Amino acid sequence: MTLAEMLQDYTIQNVVAGAALLGLVSGVLGSFAVLRRQSLLGDTMSHAALPGVCLGFIIAGTRDIGSILAGALLTGALAALVMLMLTRLSRLKTDAGLGITLSTFFAMGVVLLTHIQGMNNASQGGLDAFLFGQAAATLRSDLWIMGGITLIALTLVAALWKEFKLVSFDAEFAASLGLPVVWLETLLTVMVALAVVVGLQMVGVVLMAAMVIAPAVAARQWSHRLEGMVLLAALIGVAGGIFGALLSALSRGLATGPLIILSVSAVVLVSLTLAPERGFAWEAVRRWHARRRLRYQQVLTTLYRLAMHHDDPGFPSEQGMLDTYHGLRTRGVLRQLARRGLAEWRPGPPDEPGPPRRWVLTSAGIAEAERVLDRLGQEET
Questions:
Q1: 3-state secondary structure of 341
Q2: What is the tens place of the pLDDT at every residue in 170-216?
Q3: Which CATH number does 282-380 carry?
Q4: Membrane topology type, per the record (predicted)?
Q5: Of 158, 198, 258, 321, which sits with the fewest C-beta atoms within 10 Å of its C-beta?
Q6: Rounded distance, CA 174 to CA 165, Å?
Q7: Is residue 41 predicted with pLDDT exceeding 80?
Q8: Distance between CA 112 and CA 92 in Å, rounded?
Q9: Which CATH number fits domain 3-258: 2.60.40.10, 1.20.1440.230, 1.10.3470.10, 3.30.9.10?
């Protein structure tokens, strides 16, 4: 099946559109959660949505997506408020509050799910799919609901952009300006619950946490500004969602939700490794250069100190002695000094056996060593 034929399929159209909406809202709202150091928030909200799913089914008596999502939003928002109360009104840290809320609400959801399974309601079939998602069951009417939730979330972000930005970076300064920090943080937390609600049908309760956090983590590696981070996180979320959905359509039998998460996680892995200035690879290169620069400075200043100790700017130092002093081979560093015109090799006296390597600093090398020692002295003071 070609890509054009795939996109003409009704089910695939729904799945791709739903995945794109999920990636969009997750990338935007997840950026604020990451910056507020509440990466566990998505996990808490997604697990807290399970009792809401069950309550929505019990009240509606059937698998009505509107009732189920409304219930998920209600319990997700309630969990957010409970978490904020625990951290604000007690000595609990944020991670402890999130952990308590997550486990409590998820346990309630499991109890309600078990209760529903004993109700002998024919409509309960497939309700447990909300744990891991069931993208293929997405209908066009579901897309309208998901699109409406996404539009509400993005509208709130656009309307309160400056306030959200200030609260995310410096809540204390925002409070000093008279902003309602508690209400803004509550609104941001509830909006993460909105993102979770959008993703329940696609990736489920268990995997939704990764969808909220992963695009923002990847975007944070490439961007230094909130505007760029939010935009890039949205693009990564949309691209990862579409790619995972199409990959699932090409690979029959593979679940869509996990493939979406794996697609976004692959972007995170690449970003953590290759992102300029922050990636692991760039950090390894910086450390390698730092080690070379340090060894270069050590050998240069050692030659200088030996010459000054003997009151002879042209004092020759043997390479073997330098190797022993530094505990490593200095041949490469000495050659680098020679290429830069800072040191030169001189043969030993004719009557000595063998050709020991003797190195002497040039006038340029002496001046460079003095500059290095002067800079190191300033850094120490």
A1: coil
A2: 888 888 888 888 888 888 888 887 788 778 778 877 788 788 889 99
A3: 1.10.10.10
A4: Multi-pass membrane protein
A5: 158
A6: 10
A7: no
A8: 28
A9: 1.10.3470.10
